[in-house]
Amino acid sequence: MTITDDTVDTNAVPTPDNNLNDHKPVGFGRMLRKEDPRFVRGMGQYCDDVQLPGMLHLAILRSPLAHARIVSIEKTAAEAHPKVVAVITGADLAEKNLAWMPTL
Amino acid sequence: MNVTMNINGEEVSSDVEPRTLLVHYLRDQLGMTGTHWGCDTSNCGTCVVWVDGEPVKSCTTLAVMAGGHDVRTVEGLEVDGELDPVQEGFIQCHGLQCGFCTPGMMMTARALIDRNPDPTDHEIREAISGQICRCTGYATIVRSIQWAAAKEREQAVTLSPTGSAS
What's the pLDDT score for residue A68? Predict the structure, then answer.
């Protein structure tokens, strides 16, 4: 099968009447994506769109200072809140040998 | 507090905290996850919905501010199972890759074409200047909106009151 440049004009822009996307794909041929009809309806299931029963939400508290040393972290008030399941600090991760992960 | 608004043609009434943003009300309380929450800084525009026919960033609108008003989201673009020409245009011209910016882009595009049925590329780029896309480089988005505008101009001619069809 020979693929020549004159079979498909790759610079052509689809318009409502030129049926550019109806050609069967040959070489550079044009196709429509299978996922688009879902995405344009707002039905893409992105991570934040997933809602599972009983799922927890994670909030990350970041340092307000660009360069500092953590002296202590006061978490008793947060843990006392009825809707809080856990407050996790570097110390908790170190116990589980996870403190080496810089991104956490 | 209680808030009532018309969303995509339907009256919806809920109890919300006064601090709840419209984007979170739509996504988390109503489960309408078509509207996305992208930047938390009002920059990206993926949260754009219509309030009383005007595109607004729902991340910068409190849910209670929309009370008593008409809200239209991306879920409301489709009518009776038929895609809006803007949605078709984005499919035909590959105006999306990951699709995350797309709902906001389409709501803005829809508002633009409603007001300007024959926009220039420059006018389109200015209209979508409040939205960010990481994937497409915007060229295909502009093409998609041109496609939609052309499609509607075609349909307007076909249905013209003088009865002439082309």
Answer: 93
Residue A67 is assigned to a structural domain of this protein: no
Which tens digit of pLDDT belongs to each residue from B101-141?
A: 999 999 999 999 999 999 999 999 999 999 999 999 999 99
Q: Residue for token digits 């800084």?
A: B41
Cβ–Cβ contact B94 with A under 8 A: yes
Question: How many contacts, defined by CB atoms under 8 Å, are there between A and B?
Answer: 71
Report helix angle B139-158 to B102-115, nearest 10. 40
CA separation for the pair B101, B38 (Å, rounded): 8
Q: Which residues of B touch A13 (CB under 8 A)?
A: 93, 143, 146
3 state SS of A7: helix
ipTM of the complex: 0.89
| Neighbouring C-beta atoms of residue B78, cutoff 10 Å | 15
Query: To the nearest whole percent, how much of chain A has pLDDT over 90?
Result: 44
Given CA atoms B14, B19, B22, B23 in this order, what sign does their dihedral have?
negative
HEC sequence for B74-116: HHHCCECCECCHHHHHHHHCCCCCCCCCHHHHHHHHHHHHHHC
Is B34 in CB contact (< 8 Å) with chain A?
yes
Is A29 a domain residue?
yes
Q: In terms of residue numbers, what domain contains A32?
A: 10-49
* Segment A18-33 mean pLDDT: 65
Q: What is the CA radius of gyration of chain B?
A: 17
Closest CA to B30 of B68, B3, B65, B57: B3
Report if residue A73 sits inside a domain. no
Domains contained in chain A, number: 1
Report the pLDDT averaged over residues B88-94: 94
